[in-house]
Amino acid sequence: MYNFKGSYIGSGVYFAGLAKDELYLIRSESYLRTGDADKSLADLNHLLINRYSDFQPIKDLPNAELLKRILLERRKELLLRCIAWSDLKRLNLDKETARTITRSVEGSTYILEPNSERYAMPIPKAVVDLGKYEQN
């Protein structure tokens, strides 16, 4: 049985820093978004061939499907790295990658629409009034 420790050294402390897997995924997405699908695919294949023993390199994918695959690999590779929330906010700026989150808890359903004001906690009214700040 495998016990996930969340670190590169086997300790119980989760790793939340920058590592090569994230850099390859950032560059792959950047290449794709700037029109270089070949380099994007090369980076994604380089990462995945080192992850899965039976991985067969991806030969050809339409750009929309390649982006979906890159984002899927980001979710899998970067689990517990404290970037999912910022990815969600970033991807919500593009209607093609925006997601509505729905959760049901104890009989109540909660919906978080893309770019909702509820992505940020409001500044307490007393602080806004005291400092004459603008509410976020």
Major sheet description: 2 strands, antiparallel
Tell me the number of helical segments per DSSP (H or I, 4 or more residues long).
5
**SSE order:** HHHHEEH
Radius of gyration equals 19 Å
Number of domains: 1
**Average pLDDT, to the nearest integer?**
90
> How big a fraction of the residues is strand?
5-15%
Helix percentage: 40-55%
Shape: extended
Strand arrangement across the biggest beta sheet: 1-2
Count of β-strands: 2
Query: Distance between the terminal alpha carbons, to the nearest Å?
Result: 47 Å
Give the uncertain stretches in residue-range form.
none
Structural class: mainly alpha
Structure description:
The chain has 136 residues and is mainly α. The protein has one domain. 42% of the residues lie in helices and 7% in strands. The protein has a two-stranded antiparallel ribbon with strand order 1-2. A hairpin with a 2-residue loop joins strand 1 and strand 2 (108-112). It starts with 19 loop residues before the first helix and ends in a 5-residue tail after the last helix. The relative contact order is 0.09.
Task: Fill in the keyword field for this structure.
136 residues; mainly alpha; two-stranded antiparallel ribbon
